[in-house]
Write a structure and sequence with these properties.
The structure holds 2 protein chains of 2 kinds. By secondary structure, chain A is an all-beta fold. Chain A is built from no helices and 12 strands. In chain A, the strands form 3 sheets. In chain A, strands 2, 5, 6, 10, 11 and 12 form a 6-stranded mixed β-sheet that branches. In chain A, a hairpin with a 5-residue loop joins β7 and β8. The termini of chain A are far apart. By secondary structure, chain B is mostly beta strands. Helix content of chain B is 0%, strand content 50%. Chain B contains no helices and 11 strands. In chain B, strands 2, 4, 5, 6, 9, 10 and 11 form a 7-stranded mixed β-sheet that branches. Chain B has a 4-stranded antiparallel β-sheet with strand order 1-3-8-7, with no helix packed on it. The relative contact order of chain B is 0.32. Classes of the chains: A mainly beta, B mainly beta. The A-B interface holds A 4, 9, 32, 34, 36, 41-46, 49, 51, 90, 94-102, 104-107 and B 4, 31, 33, 35, 40-45, 48, 50, 56, 58, 90, 92, 94, 98-101, 103-104, 106-109, 111.
Amino acid sequence: AQSVTQPDIHITVSEGASLELRCNYSYGATPYLFWYVQSPGQGLQLLLKYFSGDTLVQGIKGFEAEFKRSQSSFNLRKPSVHWSDAAEYFCAVGFTGGGNKLTFGTGTQLKVEL
Amino acid sequence: DGGITQSPKYLFRKEGQNVTLSCEQNLNHDAMYWYRQDPGQGLRLIYYSQIVNDFQKGDIAEGYSVSREKKESFPLTVTSAQKNPTAFYLCASSNGQGAGTGELFFGEGSRLTVL
């Protein structure tokens, strides 16, 4: 079965600093990869997704992620973090024939210091 | 505006009682999902439905039940058999491609607390 690992439970960055959130997946074939963001007490919003093609994908709010097959990774990046980016971030993986299910990582809580 | 509406937002239940969480969508999506979220555990799939009158168990279906009588609605019942029901519950939907390839749209969640 596929799995997703987000090794960092909490990350703190200063406003204006760059950000990288790590995500590793375990799956034999090419997965479909997603990053979602969740504000406290809210549902999840899609930031970006990778299905195929260019391995560097752009998302909303200035986020990007790069699919690296050799490292089974899909790390999320942002060049300059804003205080409003403080939230919890989830990486997720799906695949065709997977029963239309997504498997989520345990999340990374981002704190932004002013 | 199109979206997913979950109700109630907060719910308190005594032990031994069943409770039903509502989920309605007006996105005309075929597939709907229920996830449970606990701190530090991410989201875990409870049940999902790809079409009306059909649904499948997810990873943690024990103690839960669902129905899908209408395309727009996918209510979740937390039964007394669920040993640890206190959690944040999220409903989601996706288009005909399915969650494996398509985007999930989420409601704002329902927080259930068992007293």
